[in-house]
Design goal:
Elements lengths: L5 E14 L3 E8 L3 E7 L18 E8 L4 E10 L2 H5 L1 H17 L7 H16 L3 H15 L21 E4 L4 E3 L1 H4 L6 E3 L1 H12 L2 H4 L6 H19 L4 H12 L19
Parallel strand pairs: 3-5
Antiparallel strand pairs: 1-2, 1-4, 2-3, 4-5, 6-7, 6-8
């Protein structure tokens, strides 16, 4: 059976790079065809009808024609430009982290409609959210689950016993939490406070609507970010480049981790 020569699909632009004199090579995420590579011919010319519809992080309706090695974008129309991401450097930096994380965990041509909509919802959320750090941690945990790297947070990976309400250890190589008895003296584990573990569990178990207005102690948010990014780095065997850029942007903005993190005193809210 001959392969379909054209595809009409909506897409999110994950990456682009200069290709030739006026073209761009795009990495596109689609709901039904997974991640695709496509050439947008002439898109860098001001007169191009596709110019402005295929910028980074844009959601667009496209018509793709199958070339010898790559798809060719023959039509493009914006569905959602996520304009706030282009007008706010911190929001744009969070978008870059979200996209790079997904791109790093997904092979080309492997359809995953849930991942597509997870990214679409994440871009919409960080366009308007005042709780960017929490939105990012929630996204990371749910993306990890979808790609088969869900961390174990309920039972000790050393003895398979239920975790007790006390400070624990986190083993990024094994993929989850280790109790004090099993983790004590091990060099490859990180200590994790019970308050941070409760938050991590709460984010893992719940939908975004349940967590979007959480208030979190700064030290808990900081510890959670370090642990999750360490886990991601170990699983990918590389560090995300966008994370360093986000750190620099946040330092320049004098906002600490996230100027939307508000102080509360009771970590038990995450149980």
């Amino acid at each position: 059976m001959a392969r379909t020569r054209t595809i009409r699909t909506e897409t999110i632009v994950l990456r682009h790079q200069v290709f030739g004199e006026a073209d761009r090579l795009l990495t596109l995420l689609t709901p039904s065809h997974g991640k695709l590579r496509a050439i947008a011919k002439g898109v860098r010319r001001p007169s191009s009808r596709k110019s402005g519809h295929l910028d980074l992080y844009m959601r667009a309706d496209v018509l793709l024609s199958r070339g010898r090695n790559l798809y060719i974008v023959t039509q493009a129309q914006t569905i959602d430009a996520y304009r706030q991401l282009r007008e706010d450097l911190i929001r744009s930096s969070y978008a870059s982290c979200s996209v790079e994380l997904l791109d790093s965990f997904t092979p080309d041509g492997d359809p995953n409609i849930d991942l597509y909509w997870l990214l679409e919802k994440m871009l919409s959320r960080i366009s308007v959210s005042n709780n960017l750090s929490i939105a990012m941690r929630h996204y990371e945990l749910h993306l990890l689950e979808m790609v088969g790297f869900r961390p174990e947070l309920e039972f000790c990976l050393g003895n398979n016993e239920l975790i007790q309400p006390e400070d624990q250890y986190f083993d990024a190589i094994a993929g989850g939490v280790i109790c004090p008895n099993c983790g004590s003296g091990q060099s490859n584990v990180w200590p994790v406070s019970m308050g941070t573990l409760k938050l991590m569990r709460f984010l893992q178990r719940n939908t975004y609507s349940s967590i979007q207005n959480l208030t979190v102690r700064t030290e808990v948010a900081s510890e959670l970010e370090k642990i999750q990014l360490h886990y991601i780095t170990v699983q990918l065997e590389k560090q995300l480049k966008s994370v360093d850029f986000l750190d620099r942007v946040r330092r320049l903005s004098n906002s600490g981790l996230d100027d939307t993190i508000r102080v509360v005193q009771n970590a038990n809210q995450f149980e």
